[in-house]
Amino acid sequence: MSMTLSPTMLRVEALRQIRNPYTLAFTLGMPVAMYLLFGASMGYGDASAGNGNVKFYVMVSMAAYGTAVAMSSITSLAATEAKQGWGRQISMTPLTTAGYAMTKLATAVTFSAFAVLLVFVAGLATGAEATDAWRWWASAGIILGIGLMFGLYGLGVGLFFNSDTAAALASISMTFFAFFGNVFIPLDGVMLDIARFSPLYGFVALSRWPLTDGVLTTGQTDPLWGLALNTVAWLVIFSVLVAAGVKRSRSRR
Amino acid sequence: MSTAADTRTPTKADLPASDDAVALTGLRKHFGIGERTVKAVDGIDLRIGRGEVVALLGPNGAGKTTTLDMLLGLTDPSAGTVAVYGQKPLKAAKGGVIAGVLQTGGLLSDLTVRETVEVIASLHGGESLARVHEILERTELDRIARRRISKCSGGEQQRVKFALALVADPDILVLDEPTAGMDVTARRHFWDVMRADADAGRTIIFATHYLEEAEQFARRTVVMHRGVVVADAPTAQLRANLGGRTLAADLPADGGDDLVRRLGQTDGITEIRVDAGRVSLRALDSDAAASALLDAGAHDLEIAAPTLETAFTALTED
After folding, report:
1. Do both B299 and B235 map to the same domain?
2. How many CB pairs below 8 Å do chains A and B form together?
3. How many domains is chain A partitioned into structurally?
4. Which of A115, B26, B162, B260 gives the lowest tally of CB atoms within 10 Å of its CB?
5. Residues in contact with A109: Cβ distance below 8 Å, sequence separation at least 6, in sequence order
6. Do B118 and A8 touch (CB under 8 A)?
7. ipTM above 0.90, yes or no
8. Which residue has the higher pLDDT, B301 or B314?
């Protein structure tokens, strides 16, 4: 039972996501489309912003959104499957729960990386710019690293809600959080004050940090500790959601 | 097939010499707490030897599925123990010693038949993965290997689950109503495949509500009712002993009432009914009852062997 990951299972899991219209539309299609719409084709796209231009700003925002959606939708699917008959089928094989989680996590991270890659390639092709090459890598690294927390969110949603709608709920709620989290459109005033408490705010602002050093489109500056606090607080909330989901799915048995 | 089993996993090579493939001891499973407790399984002791084919028969809610779930390690018992060749059941399942066809759920609708079998086989290791082609052929899934599970009929999905149980080449096969959703032809074919397996020495334990499946296929039948075992015997014996035979004859014109009274006082004769001068009864010793009837001048005698259904009804009715 030394084997934890099965190449066959990884291949089939990847195929499933490619065949899934939800995954294609929300994780791969939508971020690129949003970037082209709000970044590349806008007159202000080439205006300078921090250590680069506005296109780079929009590109990073959309890549972060795509990652959050990929992580949460794939892990929520994993949770609902594990609770159903397939989980029983898997539990009769040498694959451990950790092995199952690793397989799903690997799939989710691969798709997140793919989503980031697509948006960044679109950015590269349409004139997104940063003053240094490392800022591209730094943004991508922050997106994929901190983006893992949305795997917990998806897991919690999947465990808590017992049907196939969990995956759709996870992605649609991400879109909602993106609108009210200063991701798609720059917010101001009260909306911005509210946005600071939403789950995508800290994550996306940190992803933009290599470009902005915390400076907002309004001219205000977010302190690093504030963004870190938002991220950690939501990480704790997602963990509680997962714990509650585990408890709830156990009591259903 | 046996060579693969000998070399693949240490768990299989180390099987103890014990003849008991499965040992259930004082097994109980209760759901809920307090007054609402449901005693799904309420004290079962059962030993099943290597190579036996056993039918688990019982009405809905008898505890069959819960028992089989515990046998596969999918549900923990409230009390008692389950041993599969002396091992914990889930360990035996993970080691490929025991495998089951589950009644509920089990498949991902967006996978193809081949992908489903390949994924589960790959988790059991390279040898199982190499066996996929052969198993798809044996379960006649090769022609629909590229079909999505969501496009498969209930019977086809059932065959896929059967294929999943076979990939690890288990010593013990547990089947929970395996032919549910299959048409008559598919059921017959399924049992032909199973018969070959049983002849090859695989231990088979199956739950069914088709009485004729137990009758035709299982050498031993365990009847469950309300969480306990109410009968456990060779299937043929269960039929003969518990059911008795049904006799019917036209009563003689003279002394008919007297004959009926006499029969009613005989041990082993039950369910005497007289309808329009014809008596019907159930007798454990059908020869004695028949000669008593004929000696008294009854005629047009009919003797019918019981079906398992009558035995089953007799055992499970209150």
Report:
1. no
2. 71
3. 1
4. B26
5. A71, A144, A148
6. yes
7. no
8. B301
pLDDT tens digits, A199-239: 999 999 999 999 999 898 888 899 999 999 999 999 999 99
Domain count, chain B: 2
Asked if the Cβ–Cβ distance from A95 to B129 is below 8 Å, we say no
Tell me if B121 sits within 8 A of B128, measured CB to CB: yes
> Which residue, among B38, B109, B120, would best test binding to A if mutated, counting the most A CBs under 10 Å from its CB?
B120
Does residue B260 share a domain with residue B292? yes
Domain span holding position B200 = 2-239
Residues from chain A contacting residue B122 (CB–CB below 8 Å): 6-9
CATH assignment at residue B311: 3.30.70.100
Task: List CB contacts (< 8 A) between A81 and chain B.
Answer: 108
Contact B122 A15 (CB under 8 A): no
Beta-carbon contacts of residue B254 (< 8 Å; ≥ 6 apart): B297
Instruction: Give Dmax over CA atoms of chain A in angstroms.
Output: 58
User: Do residues B163 and B268 both lie within one domain?
Assistant: no
> Is A94's CB within 8 Å of B123's CB?
yes
Contact A8 B129 (CB under 8 A): yes
Hey, which of A128-142, A154-168, B64-78, B197-211 has the most confident mean pLDDT? A128-142
Query: Looking at the domain assignment, is residue A2 inside a domain?
Result: no
Residue of chain A whose Cα is closest to the Cα of B96: A93
Say whether B175 sits in a helix, a strand or coil: strand
Does residue A24 sit at the B interface (CB-CB below 8 Å)? no
What pairing do the DSSP bridges indicate for beta strands B245-250 and B299-304?
A: antiparallel
Report the CATH number that the domain containing residue B106 is assigned in CATH.
3.40.50.300
Any domain includes A99: yes
pLDDT of B152-205, one tens digit each? 988 888 889 999 999 989 999 999 988 877 888 888 888 888 888 888 889 999
Where a domain ends, among B174, B204, B239?
B239
Containing structural domain, residue A221: 7-252
Contact B49, B20 (CB under 8 A): yes
Query: B90 and B55, same structural domain?
Result: yes
Q: Which one-letter amino acid corresponds to residue B48?
A: I
Among A200, A222, A218, A239, which Cα is nearest to A64's? A200
